[in-house]
């Protein structure tokens, strides 16, 4: 079982490795806004779970299993972003919501949300109808608020 | 700021009060699967935040502010359930996902998900198209898996 924090680390290390080819403690610390000492402790835990190793000269490296999980975390994050973006949520709120939600979404729910994004992408008339529906609800709500 | 655990307690106390008119430590403990001593500690914290009070003979009672929040938690939980149910997620998975997700969904996202449920409810042709789309994706995936 991975904790939410472990998932965040795997996602971040995967990201850094894709960007730079390696992940340094200092880079992980600054991008997750944590102390380097916390990174070192977490790396030990992930090492025990055989998800990362430490290579001389190269630094922290994901094992194949760690890379597979990191990729999954990154993909889940990206897909949840896409879903909320489709719903018209503000970027700032998207980032905050996704950071919390991502650790609690089962593969079944993730797959259904992804299907919903694909569906609206390929059936723009339904997305249009949905957006019109939202505008209408909003107008109704505002009229009601004015009446009060 | 409320912690996830505080939100769970407020939701549960609200539920018990609606059901029975009162919330006893033992009922809260058994329905949240925690020790009575944990409930007592949490009630103290919620009391400090003026969300619950202890009334002689009646037991734990939500303050008006606590009741408002408890109702909101309960509503958010119910609406997330409805959303995942609409996506065809299994009941067991729904319960697990909602218990985690609910604490991380912003009001903006909650409102958008709720609109989506209302939309599909009132535009069943779009829901039908979505369900057909999912079946098609599933068939494609199975055909691909067979080829491997
Ligand atoms: Mn993330
Ligand atoms: Mn709940």
TrEMBL record, chains A, B:
Residues 2-63 form the HTH dtxR-type domain. Keywords: Activator, Cytoplasm, DNA-binding, Manganese, Repressor, Transcription, Transcription regulation. Its main location: cytoplasm. The keyword DNA damage does not apply. InterPro entries: DtxR_MntR_Metal-Reg, Fe_dep_repressor, Fe_dep_repressor_sf, HTH_DTXR, Iron_dep_repressor, WH-like_DNA-bd_sf, WH_DNA-bd_sf. Signal peptide: none annotated. It is found in: Cytoplasm. It holds the Pfam family Fe_dep_repr_C. Belongs to the DtxR/MntR family. Homodimer. This is Manganese transport regulator. It comes from Tumebacillus amylolyticus. The gene is mntR.
């Amino acid at each position: 079982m991975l904790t939410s924090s472990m998932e965040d680390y795997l996602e971040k290390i995967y990201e850094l490795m894709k960007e730079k080819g390696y992940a340094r403690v200092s880079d992980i610390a600054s991008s997750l806004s944590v102390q380097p000492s916390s990174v070192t402790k977490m790396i030990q835990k992930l090492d025990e779970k055989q998800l990362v190793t430490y290579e001389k000269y190269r630094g922290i490296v994901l094992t194949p299993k760690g890379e597979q999980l990191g990729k999954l975390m990154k993909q889940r994050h990206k897909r949840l972003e896409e879903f909320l973006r489709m719903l018209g949520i503000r970027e700032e709120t998207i980032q905050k919501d996704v950071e919390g939600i991502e650790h609690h979404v089962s593969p079944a729910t993730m797959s259904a949300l992804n299907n919903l994004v694909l569906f609206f992408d390929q059936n723009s008339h339904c997305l249009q109808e949905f957006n019109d529906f939202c505008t209408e609800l909003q107008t109704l709500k505002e009229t009601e608020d004015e009446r009060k």
